[in-house]
Fold these 4 entries.
Entry 1:
Amino acid sequence: MPTMPKPTDGDREYFRALLPDDARVEVKPMFGSLGAFVNGNMFLGLYGRDVGVKLDDAARAELLAEPGAGPFGPAERPMGGYVALPPAWRSEPERAAPWVGRALEHVGSLPPKRPKAKRA
């Protein structure tokens, strides 16, 4: 099993700088990284240096047309429905902000995720 890439403090700062000012957003640690959730569903994730957003099909195709955008997650098994933001946008977070907003809107419209039952 390949090792998970660890984000740097700078990667975490970039991720946090992209978080919308919305009371519904909850940030949780995930496998040594971070995820931002709305209603229990992740809309923004950090995997190594990559930041990914979950979008509907049309928006996903639109973002994938941007130079540098691509699959999000492990190369051998990218996360379905997510797109990694172009790395060049790290120096231009204002370019990423609309996509993060679209991800929040899309995922916020999905049914809330039900907590898994605890094992006895």
Entry 2:
Amino acid sequence: MSGQMWVWVVLAGLAVLLWAERAENSKVKAVAKPIASTAFIAEAVAFGAGTTRWGQVLLVALAFCWLGDVLLLSRKDKLFLGGLVAFLLGHVGYAVMFVMLGLDTTWLMGGGVFVLVVLPIVAKWVLPNVKGSMKGPVVAYMVVISAMVALAAGCAGHTDRLIFLVAAVMFFVSDLAVARDRFVSPGFPNRLWGLPLYYVAQILFAATPGSP
């Protein structure tokens, strides 16, 4: 099946997942979310990710995100922490991929300035609501995803793949929805905007091996 067709599978899975989130139907969520996440890995394969070393790193990053998606189906603290670690490793994978492709210093510095401005604002909003042993992993995650966004900017400037930066920023913003839902104000509205941003970001990452 073509990469474009897998995109439609991701979007269909996302639509069902949003319905299940709204209806609080855990059984449908447990099916729809893994299908949508498996589809973005299949999309990357269809677009030729396995044919290059950086594309193979992309597949590893997507696989860690898949694992994070499955673990975050539960709201139990241990599984949430496992999902957090899985996504952190996914972001490390994206960061390694960007470095492999090369970085533009000016764009990298611009991305660094952006995250240095935004990160303290996010930390001041989220961290007072994070309790106990969860605070350390949350801080580590925030640092890693911020570094990933900065590196995405550097890579976009070097390779003319602005899609990397767009996807990274969308991923960052989608994580704000996760943080709000988990630590600040739980509710379906968080997932209503966070999940589409997340899955579109993954669609964009998965499409990059085949993009011009």
Entry 3:
Amino acid sequence: MQTFKLLAELLDYPSGQLVSDLRALIAEHGDVHGMLDVVDGDAVFPRAEREEIAGFIDWLLTQDQTELEANYVRTFDMVAEHSLHLTHHLFGDDKNRGPALIDLSEYYKSFGLQHEESEIPDYLPLMLEFVSQLEHDEARIFLNDATKIFRVLATNLEKFQSPYAALIRVIENHGTLAKLAA
């Protein structure tokens, strides 16, 4: 389930190291599609979703590093409706957010995932890192709890004309339990 790990990296702050690593992986596998075919070796993500991810990576690689970082900050840090801290969409700064964060952290620990105390457990890249360690059906069930948040977040990002919206839609698709029966 390395595609979820890749999505975690793509949704995290875009370091120069990420861009460098992506360029190296693409060169190693011939092109972005070859890289994604290897990353999604289990073919969990349909071709259309891999195309969305490839389009995002192509966009990312054409950006100036400083502008890429500034775009990320403008998108996720300056607009509360775009927050990658998912409980913010449910609770805002309400006091009930704290227990939800503690429960999520304990849930991770029950699966053996330890995260740095400085990381808030509802940060989407951290959640995707966790999901990458699950079986696909388990990942769907875990992501299903946040499907409505993904839908709202993707819509907000689409209104902002953010390329990150496509990645959130891909994640939303994998949280839909109806696909389990397919």
Entry 4:
Amino acid sequence: MKTKLLVLLFVLALIYSGCGNKKPVAGSQVADSLLKAPAPDYGMMIVAKLSVKPEKIKDFMEAAKVMIENSNKEPGCKSYQLYQDPYDNTKFVFVEQYTNQAAVDAHFAAEYFKAFGPKVGNLVTGPAQIKIISMAKEVNQ
């Protein structure tokens, strides 16, 4: 029963997040729009969903590999991973965790980050859907 409830809540959250007239933030505007994030001492998470043109998946993966390797070396980056939908191999999700807002700002200021958008612009079907999440309280369990 708990599993069914969790799945239902997850599906409702996905449906809710897709509703409304939200405009995705494009390339170089991302860093500017995210500077208004909450308290700098909170952990931060970024989830970025992308759709890649089927014939460009290999090129996208090569570009993403550089981004992932460099990002994971950043001092404030806890984790930077890329996931591919097993049922639709053109759908990708970056999941990023940072120690605080300053670490996110440093990531957006990195040259490889600035170069990534133009590098993959013709490989994707549209702008990324980006969610920023602030961890109000971190609990060790």
